[in-house]
Each structure stands twice: as C-alpha cells, then as structure tokens.
Amino acid sequence: MGATDASRERSDVPAVNVGLLGAPGPGRDALRCGLLDHGLSIALEADLATFVANPDAGEVQVILVDLHHAADEELEQLADLMALQGLPPLLFNEDSPAERENVWMRRLAGKLAGLAGPAAEPDTPAPVQPAASPDIWVLGASFGGPEAVKRFLEAVPEVPEAVFVLVQHIGDGFVDLLAAQLNRSTPFRVLPLMSGAELRPGCVYVMPVDRVLELDADDRVVLAAETAADRSYNPCIDEVMRRLSHRFGPRVGAVVFSGMGDDGTAGAEAIAEAGGEVWAQDSGSCSISSMPDCAAATGVVSRRGNPEELARALVQYLRAPREQA
C-alpha cells in the first residue's frame, strides 16, 4: 500500500517504506493515514506480538512502534523486539496524532524519513566531510544525566549542523531505550552508535556500553571491544573525548553534564589542548555536580549554565564565524 501522487505533491518528505507496529484500532489507523498523507509508504503493518514471532521486515526502511495506550502485554513484547538483530531503525511513538494534528504528523514523517538513511537523501552525496566538516560535540553524563541531556536537546531552538555523541554511564541493555526516549522527545535524530556509521550532522549518537570508539580511514565508526578491565566508567567519557579530539582537533567540543566522579576531566583537557571548547552544567541545576565541577576545576571550561542556557548558547556559538570558534 503506497501513498498517492497527490499526497506526494503535498509533502516534501522523500518516499520511504515504513513498518507500522502496534495494536489495531483507531490510533494505528490515524498514524497510517497521516503517514500516507505526508508521502510515506506503509510496507508492513502488524501488532507487536505477530512481528516478534515472525520478524521479516522485507523492504521496510524504518519501523514506527506505536505505544500510545499500549496494553501491558504489548509493552512486554518490547524487550523481545529490542533483542532482534538486523532490524531497520526503530522509532517509538507514545502520542496520539489527534493531539497535535498536522504539525506533529509532519515532524514524525520527517523523523522517519531521516532515520531511513540513504533513501532519504537521493542524489546528494554526503558533503559532510572533508569539504564542510561539521563540529562534533561530546555530551558526557552520568547520574542525573538523562534528564539534563533531555532538557538540553529539547531547548535547542533549531537543529544545528553539528554531530553529537552522547556518552552516558548506563547499564547494558538500556542504550537503545535511552536513544528511543530522546528521539521521541527532542527534535534530533537520536540513535545508538554502530560500527560502520558515518557521523552525520543533526544526529545524536548514543555510545554503547563495553565498547571503545575508533574511526577508520574514511572517518566511519569502528566499535572495538573494551579491554581495560580496570576502567571505572562505562562507557568512558574521557576515552571518547580523547579519541575524537585526536582525530578532529579544534572541531571537537564537549558539554559535561550531571554525574558522580570525575569522568570527562582528562578528556576535557585533551579537547582544550586540541583547541576545542569545553562547557559544563552549573552546580545548581545538577542532580550531582561532581563531574562538571571536576572538569571546571581544570580551568579549561569556558562556559557554565543550566541545560537550557547551554543549548541556546551552543546554537549561537555554532552560528558564529569560524575564526571565533
């Protein structure tokens, strides 16, 4: 079932094959109609249990999982869905299309098209690197970090032409859920960092647990197994900051958010030494301010503020002429 020519003309969203998962009913019907009206195609439609039992995505490029008013038995299928290998990107929805009508649906369609990857960018070879290389910002966080980062990303007035790598101390198995939550509630495309990924501006990549970030000769991501058994932090913010600043120099910046300990302190010094910017959340807005306070104690932090203040300042900073960066 595809979109009509008329709906394609009404939408600036590229044609994308979407898989729609969720309980049958008015909510799923409304999503189907809205996506078709915005130029997307529904290549698969099923409830969660049926798809998990037979996870054949076929030609699907991105999967929308509708959780609005989901029953407990449907939510229990989520863990099984997340454990499946080789699926297209997943986007989770907890809202009703009727609540925000056309603007909400247009934004949802745009996110789905973006997550679908190359199909959403037909003829334009990614001119991201090296000609007009974007800045890369590391967002380091621990205890209290998910809420602080969520506030930060929600407060960005427009998605900047920059790459974000979120390094959040988190338990194994929660990376996908964190990415899904942030993807749902912020204007960014948020997805778990995977080997082979090309770092694209406008995206937030969540660093996985028990992995070390490396880059190949073409600046594509290579995730190697963690070998430092005595490392106190997982994933390690310092390590990601050091590796990115070593490769990309002054293009790399960082924001150190709420957290215990001092992870991010050595990395902040490495970024500053390479010519990059380091900012930190202020103590008063942190759940625990140890991490940003330790980074600030090095003298390399040039700005502190609450998440909303830092978000607004970052957009202004990225708009500034390069000689000011």
> Kindly state the mean pLDDT as a whole number?
84
Number of extended strands: 13
Q: Over the alpha carbons, how many angstroms does the gyration radius reach?
A: 20 Å
Residue share in helix: 25-40%
Fraction of residues in β-strands: 15-25%
> What sort of overall outline do the alpha carbons produce when their principal axes are compared?
globular
What name is given to the CATH topology of the largest domain? Rossmann fold
Helix-strand string: HEHEHEHHEHEHEHEEEEHEHEHEH
Major β-sheet annotation: 7 strands, parallel
Q: What is the strand arrangement across the widest sheet?
A: 7-8-6-5-11-12-13
The CATH homologous superfamily of the largest domain corresponds to Methylesterase CheB, C-terminal domain
CATH-defined architecture of the largest domain: 3-Layer(aba) Sandwich
Features:
disordered N terminus; Rossmann fold; seven-stranded parallel β-sheet; 36% helix; 13 strands; alpha/beta; 20% strand; 325 residues
